[in-house]
């Protein structure tokens, strides 16, 4: 089955999708042909929702974050999480810790088994007004110890060696680019963003710029079955089975690919206007419409 929460015209997905207008959808079918709306807790139906994450290795929970919103779903029940601070929570990632990034440039961490004690971390400034758009725990992929990498606008990259308790400003490595997503690909951290920028790092400390996809807004990086994908906001993906040898795949439209995940070894992308794209190899895609998402 697939659980998806909708993000209006801006959808983000991991194992779920969320909605900027507070709509959350669920499909009992792996083909995503049937959908029903999920009821959020009272007072959260109309919140601006931004990020989503899932915990698989311990408590198998779903998290949704947004404007003054942190919701956790487990055992068919929603739990409202409070950090004691107001803001727009934009991204969430996990190991034994939960790490939350905000549009205000702060980080919050807590142990998964103690969600009442949150620590607010003020990141060292790269540029004024930096907002956090992506966080990844390297340890979740078995390649790193306790390294965490966070990215944001203004080319900001931050690194933590202790699961997010303390952070180092790596610097505006991406220059003036907006860094949108960070992932672990081929055992290394990969960051993508505006104007086709790609940065790789073996340790989160030393970063190397790869050949750009100039003119493309890269929205995500994901890997499965030995295939790496870069998603874009212009209806295309770039596919590689070896290093920097990329193949451009035209989806047949110009709709932004705003979210991605891998479900049972299959790539799943969500594009604007409720387009659900699926592929087993990243080269051949099928597209279906989530009818209730047409705007």
Task: Give the helices and strands, then pairings.
Layout: E1 2-5, E2 12-13, E3 17-18, E4 24-27, E5 36-38, E6 49-55, E7 61-66, E8 69-74, E9 77-80, E10 89-94, E11 97-102, E12 106-111, E13 119-122, E14 132-137, E15 148-152, E16 157-160, E17 168-171, E18 179-185, E19 188-193, E20 198-201, E21 208-209, E22 218-224, E23 227-232, E24 236-240, E25 247-250, E26 257-263, E27 266-271, E28 275-279, E29 286-289
Antiparallel strand pairs: 1-4, 2-3, 4-5, 6-7, 7-8, 8-9, 10-11, 11-12, 12-13, 14-15, 15-16, 16-17, 18-19, 19-20, 20-21, 22-23, 23-24, 24-25, 26-27, 27-28, 28-29
Task: Please explain how this structure is put together.
- The chain is mainly beta and 295 residues long.
- Helix content is 0%, strand content 48%.
- The protein has no helices and 29 strands.
- It has strands spanning 2-5, 12-13, 17-18, 24-27, 36-38, 49-55, 61-66, 69-74, 77-80, 89-94, 97-102, 106-111, 119-122, 132-137, 148-152, 157-160, 168-171, 179-185, 188-193, 198-201, 208-209, 218-224, 227-232, 236-240, 247-250, 257-263, 266-271, 275-279, 286-289.
- The protein has a four-stranded antiparallel beta sheet with strand order 6-7-8-9, with no helix packed on it.
- A hairpin with a 4-residue loop joins strand 15 and strand 16.
- It is globular, with a radius of gyration of 18 Å.
- 44% of the residues are buried.
- Residues 1-16 have low confidence and may be disordered.
């Amino acid at each position: 089955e697939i659980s998806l929460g909708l993000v209006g015209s801006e959808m983000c997905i991991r194992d779920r999708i969320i909605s900027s207008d507070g709509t959350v959808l669920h499909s009992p079918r792996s083909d995503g042909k049937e959908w029903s709306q999920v009821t959020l807790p009272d007072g959260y139906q109309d919140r601006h929702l931004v990020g989503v994450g899932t915990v698989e290795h311990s408590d198998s929970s779903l998290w949704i974050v947004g404007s003054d919103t942190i919701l956790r779903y487990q055992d068919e029940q929603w739990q409202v999480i409070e950090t004691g601070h107001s803001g727009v929570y934009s991204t969430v990632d996990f190991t034994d810790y939960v790490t939350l990034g905000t549009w205000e440039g702060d980080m919050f961490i807590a142990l998964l088994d103690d969600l009442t004690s949150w620590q607010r971390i003020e990141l060292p400034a790269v540029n004024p007004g930096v907002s956090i758009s992506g966080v990844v725990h390297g340890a979740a992929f078995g390649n790193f110890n306790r390294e965490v990498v966070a990215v944001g606008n203004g080319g900001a990259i931050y690194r933590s060696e202790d699961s997010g308790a303390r952070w180092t400003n790596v610097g505006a490595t991406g220059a003036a680019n907006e860094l949108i997503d960070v992932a672990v690909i081929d055992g290394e951290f990969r960051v993508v963003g505006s104007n086709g920028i790609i940065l790789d790092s073996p340790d989160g400390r030393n970063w190397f710029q790869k050949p750009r996809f100039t003119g493309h807004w890269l929205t995500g990086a994901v890997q499965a079955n030995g295939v790496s994908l870069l998603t874009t906001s212009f209806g295309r993906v770039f596919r590689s089975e070896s290093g920097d040898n990329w193949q451009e795949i035209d989806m047949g439209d110009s709709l932004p690919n705003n979210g991605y995940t891998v479900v049972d070894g299959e790539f799943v992308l969500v594009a604007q206007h409720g387009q659900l794209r699926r592929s087993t190899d990243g080269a051949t895609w099928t597209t279906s419409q989530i009818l209730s998402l047409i705007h």
